[in-house]
Design goal:
The structure is a homotetramer.
Chain A (H helix, E strand, L loop, with lengths): L1 H25 L4 H9 L18 H14 L1 H18 L3 H7 L3 H15 L4 E4 L15 E5 L2 E11 L7 E8 L6 E7 L4 E4 L13 E10 L11 H7 L1 H29 L6 H30 L4 H29 L9 H10 L8 H12 L4 H4 L6
Parallel strand pairs in A: 1-4, 2-4
Antiparallel strand pairs in A: 2-3, 3-7, 4-5, 6-7
């Protein structure tokens, strides 16, 4: 699939780039980008072939995400949420399902969601809450059983694509047993209200608004069919929660270098030694981050959740975030004041690039975990904060 | 004077800060900030006492500028332009005037401009042009003698406070002799048209728009009364062209630390070691940059234009610019995603702070000049580009 | 005094520099440097004029230390120990003495020690111990009262100038009451044995060997004349324990820039842009660190031990240490492989410069304390480790 | 082969590490390490299987070099020279030989040299000269034809393993035609004299002494059998001249992290947040550099000398050199003063690690070339200095 999807991503990126300034200015959702993604079949990227998708590996996903981000990082970030949902659903093998006690009808429900994605539906993630961030252990959104299903009530924040997605992966806590956290796929519609709070420094086009839930869903929308699987899945697939952002920020860094080179060549400034030194070091750092993301992804495909895989995931998150921010800051300095005008790609990329280190797990947290591991410790046990 | 002016600046800063978000959002000029500055008598800061001003030294100016910038860096940057004009005019001693051949009537005209400033007029600078930047040697705006005065024609860019100042210091080239560059003080009004082009990453409230000139001015608006003094003045007072920005960016860096501390304390995050390390290193770097600016300013007052003074001026410009950008980026990372929301001070300060290294002389140029000097060379002779 | 002592330091520095390579190679003590210091009267630098000394302020001391370090950082580090002892003794005013309950005979004994210094004796510090570092609260060296004096027994490490000093300031714990830590001035001689353990990456000429004590001293060698003052003095004069190193490392950084400039000019490499950028940024950083040290010192003279003074002391320690290491690493890279040959000043300075951040309080600890203070906390209360 | 050779390297590394301190202290050649390498058959690593060697690819070589460097970087650097000679000789395919006009007897001679290597001979490189560095275009060592062979006369510097190798690859200029530079394989023995000049900051055990040549060699020791091939080979195989060092410095960086972790755990300091942050960031940076070296090597095997391959080679050289220096400096700071004692692995690694950026092409030169390429230029044409 790589070839097909990767080519599609490369074909779409310039179209995204052409629209990026407008969406950044207005904070508007890149509706046309998503129409393009649907048309190119990329909503089915992570859907198994048997269900009509492209059956991409995680490594293939990261390559696609980087290319999309070279067009518009915000579009790639939202797409990442959809890829996370479909990728995590698709990664539940029969063995795993059996081990977790997932009933057959839940697998059938899962397949229906994935088939719908392959046919053009897309999902976002409603996980974070004000005050608790992305920590599953501190959620306040509650659910309880109803006749024939579930009722969810609570508020989410940083929900990328809010108001545009067809459905949302929602993490909630059982009203009956506070220790039980489950995940639901909630369709857009009545009971799901968007409060337009997103107005950010960077990645402005993600529409990562607040989402208020007071909604009933059918029984089969409990993912996995049994309660309490949310944390287990997080432990098994930290790459989706931590590192899939990384691929996006590599694309942002590369876009910044390309935009700077174009800007500097247009002004005949390519001969300045200081300019060359900045672009040269930016190029090397970005190339390195890209390889680390690819290596992390390769290992995720081979041994998801393994100790060594997780270290690569943290390295990817750390290096992609810090590299994007440093690269964008440096090449903007090389390009000069004329590139700080709103509407100039570098002006936007400088802001977008700063956001990578801030997504959970932040760069500082990744550095802490990696340090613990380098010292022979266990981040789960020795970390200064709970990982989830 | 310091005490009075510095206290006034400290008193005004919180008022500027309270208005900063709105002006940043809209790119509107901080009209109320300037009314406050007028009312506090700060338009006369650099005007000699004999002419009704406060007679501040350059060192006193930098202290005031830093305090103003803790409120709003954009306001301080525009004020810097006014201080540059009045400071440079006020610094022309009788000895210097005699050496340059400045006639008495020109000194009288100069005094009228300074008195007007002390009474509430303020001036901006219209120097840069598209394509040539701030290099005097490459200007295209032309002037010629008319009956009873001069006529100027051309276009300027990056003119801070355009449309709000009472007058503009305009550098122009003689239509008769291309090698002659002179400076005029052009009153706002007919023949001076603002084209609202300023829409920038940071320092958005400076209204640094384009200015189109097709205007006649009285004879006495030729500064110095003899043609061709522009370059001489630039050589004598490089601090006003290069380093007075520096004080502003120290204020921006300090404002970022303060905003981060407030944000982190409000969220009970002050105990995180990574947060403390970021704020501690930011504090040390900012304190150092502030001392370097103060030392440069002290030497400017003692020996303006001297070789060693100039090295301190470049050090001040280099360190203020790089420190502000690095400090703002680091403490924003410490503060986290919630501080990236538009309207949050750190969101604005992160963008404002990036601009310091880009003002001429850029950080890379300052580093080059300092390197030449450290190697025993002469930046004027050995630099890779003409200094003016 | 400054002029005299500073001129002496400048005069001696080239002589120290000429001997530095040999002492670095052999790890031998710079005996001739210390003869020069004695002859120049610099052992009395911190001794009050009334006792025959030069009565230097802390600020004057730091200026002298930086100049000495431009010659040989190791010599300056050892001299720093002597200056600490004499400076701290000299700083005990009559008011302070009264407040601490220091009897008159102790002041007389103190005066005898200072007079001896003015006449050519010099003292080192034997504070640190293996395992507990420089923390007073964790010492194991013990003392007890004897007929007519005290007996001390224990082992010290990192005792600069061991085997060459005329006396040692020794911190020890009362055998009777573990909570009481006192300081003694122990003369070199029987019962004081040097174990030559010092063989270090950098600052090799300091002879910072281990010192084994099993020695009786007269009653008047208990500093202050009453037991238990060690911690009080540390609290009052943290600059001597934390920041007097800083001045030395500014000198090391400046020496590295000078050596690199000489090396590059000799090879006609001063025109390379990358070389110039490295030297320019190194120059600015070093100039900044020097100002911070001077400002810290000025405040130490004005308000020793004050909260704001201490912040400047930590800034000085942090910036001098990190700047020296980064500057030396960068200019050595500019100078190239030919400067890595043993005996080349840059080869030594690169190793010497790395040591500054490691002296207590380390750069990481200073950053933590500064961060706590920037966040409105109190490093004594909120720090992750006891300060003494 | 990888498995066998890589296992051998891993097996030998601890033995090298155990001997490293002594050779570093004395600047003595690691004779026993080389006996181990011979015994393990690693002198034949780059020799084609048909000639009795292991037939390793460049990628396999870099993996082996990194492992050897985890034991002793100096040993790995000398081994790198042998690998360069045998690797470059082995890489001359029949097609290339034909294109270059290499006669059959020269290929036979080449095969004899490679067979000898597989049987335990090892070769070093005598390329650099004082004043001209490693630039082929500026050599002064001259050769001329004699009856039955060639006579070479001149002096080389930085010849790793001088006095220990069985033969030296010598670049020399034709006495008849200055534009012709050729390479010879000169056997150790009469006419080849070692002047022990190597006494360096780091990589002290390489014995990179000066080599004086006044020696006659048989006709078949002209590599390639025709004169003037030196520059062609350099153009074709820049990886051997520029990037094979990179793998060594990745090993040095990893060794520093491992040594720091061991040191910190032994002192119960693994829980300090600043320590963890340093080790975590060091780990990520080193992992990234290792991937970049591996990617460069993979491309060298696929498309040696291609434009894109060369960019990866420069990235590898740049990142390995800067990463090793920064990692060693940071983890030494984490480990503290007790790790600066001579004989401690970190003390040596800190010095060894600084050397990577200084080997040609230096980090600054690589950054310049990468910048030119990122800007769409051609380093060969636009670089500030000739590449060879």
């Amino acid at each position: 699939m790589t070839v097909h999807a990767l080519e599609a991503a490369r074909r779409l990126a310039p179209r995204f780039a052409a629209r990026a300034a407008e969406h950044d200015r207005d904070g508007s959702f890149p509706v046309d980008d998503f129409a393009d993604l649907r048309e190119a079949g990329l909503f089915g990227l992570m859907v198994p072939r048997a269900l009509g998708g492209l059956g991409a590996t995680f490594a293939e996903y990261t390559a696609v995400a980087t290319e999309l981000a070279r067009g518009n990082g915000a579009t790639a970030l939202v797409f990442n949420m959809h890829a996370s949902v479909t990728g995590a659903l698709g990664a539940v093998t029969e063995e795993l399902a059996e081990a977790l006690g997932v009933p057959d009808e839940a697998l059938a429900a899962r397949d229906r969601l994935l088939s719908a994605a392959a046919q053009g539906s897309w999902y976002s993630v409603a996980m974070s809450e004000r005050g608790s961030g992305a920590r599953l252990s501190q959620l306040t959104t509650a659910y309880e059983a109803t006749d024939g299903g579930w009722h969810l009530k609570g508020s989410k924040t940083f929900c990328s694509g809010a108001g545009h997605a067809d459905g949302y992966l929602v993490a909630a806590r059982s009203a009956v047993d506070q220790s039980v956290v489950s995940q639901f796929l909630v369709a857009a519609g009545d009971g799901v209200t968007v409060e337009p709070t997103w107005d950010s420094l960077g990645m402005r086009a993600t529409s990562s608004h607040d989402l208020h839930l007071d909604v009933s869903v059918p029984a089969d929308r409990l993912l996995g069919g049994v309660e309490g699987l949310a944390l287990v899945v997080a432990q098994l697939m930290p790459h989706w929660l931590v590192a899939s952002y990384a691929a996006v920020y590599v694309g942002v860094a590369r876009a910044a270098i390309d935009a700077a080179a174009e800007h500097l060549n247009a002004r005949n400034l390519a001969g300045l030694p200081a300019v060359r030194a900045r672009l040269g070091r930016a190029d090397a750092a970005t190339a390195a981050a890209q390889l680390v993301v690819a290596e992390a992804a390769r290992r995720v495909d081979e041994a998801p959740g393994d100790e060594e895989t997780n270290r690569w995931v943290w390295r990817a998150k750390l290096l992609a975030g810090t590299t994007a921010a440093e690269v964008a800051a440096s090449v903007l300095e090389a390009a000069g004041t004329s590139a700080t005008r709103r509407g100039h790609p570098l002006e936007r990329l400088y802001r977008d690039a700063r956001c990578g280190s801030l997504h959970p797990a932040t760069s500082d947290v990744c550095a802490d975990w990696l340090g613990i591991a380098a010292l022979g410790g266990d981040p789960d046990r020795d970390g200064s904060a709970p990982r989830w």
